[in-house]
Amino acid sequence: MEKSIKSELIGVFTYNEEMKAYEVHEGKIHWKLDISHEGVDVKEMKKSAEKLFIRLEEFDKNAKKAIAEKLIAYKNDFWPEYDVDDENLDWDAVEAGEYDVTKEQFEKALTLYDIIIRANDFYCEYDDGDLFGGHRIHTHFDYDGNLLSADV
User: Fold this and answer.
1) I need a surface site. Which of 17, 79, 87, 105 has the fewest CB within 10 A?
2) Which of 55, 31, 54, 60 lies closest to 118 in space, CA to CA?
3) Percent of the chain scored above 90 by pLDDT?
């Protein structure tokens, strides 16, 4: 097992035996190549990571839109931006959606932290920008960048 794999784009992936993964901790985003499954080709995973890295800005923008689409109703219905115990709360305004977070606000709040390249998909973890009380948003994408799942 190689101790490290160099990517000209991302940096040096260092093997973490406990995690069965190669990791890069440089920069704002933590990258990982998950080799825990039998028969995975770490060089192909590195290529997939580099392809994603090259289009990361576009991917991130599209991912945030997809995540907002998927979770906006949950956010506004179950994590409201108002205090339900406020005796002066204007419930008509609540019903009219005046306190709802917009998709644009939702997208702007998200920050990508982790990317894990896996055998059949990749996992991304986003900071919620306090939309869900500081919880992380866990997402899975196919290799074409399509959102497979998103949850808090």
Assistant:
1) 87
2) 31
3) 91
d(CA 50, CA 65): 22
- Return the structure tokens found at 38: 């039998």
Helix axes 42-54, 56-78, angle to 10 degrees: 80
> Please, where are the H alpha helices in 12-149?
42-54, 56-78, 91-95, 103-109
Mean pLDDT throughout 141-146?
95
CA 61 from chain centre, in angstroms, equals 11
Read off φ and ψ for residue 93, nearest 5 degrees. -65, -40
**What's the rounded Cα separation, in Å, for the pair 32 and 120?**
14
pTM over 0.85: yes
- Residue 133 and residue 147: Cα distance in Å, rounded? 23
Read off the tokens for 19.
């995690």
Q: How far apart are CA 129 and CA 135, in angstroms?
A: 9
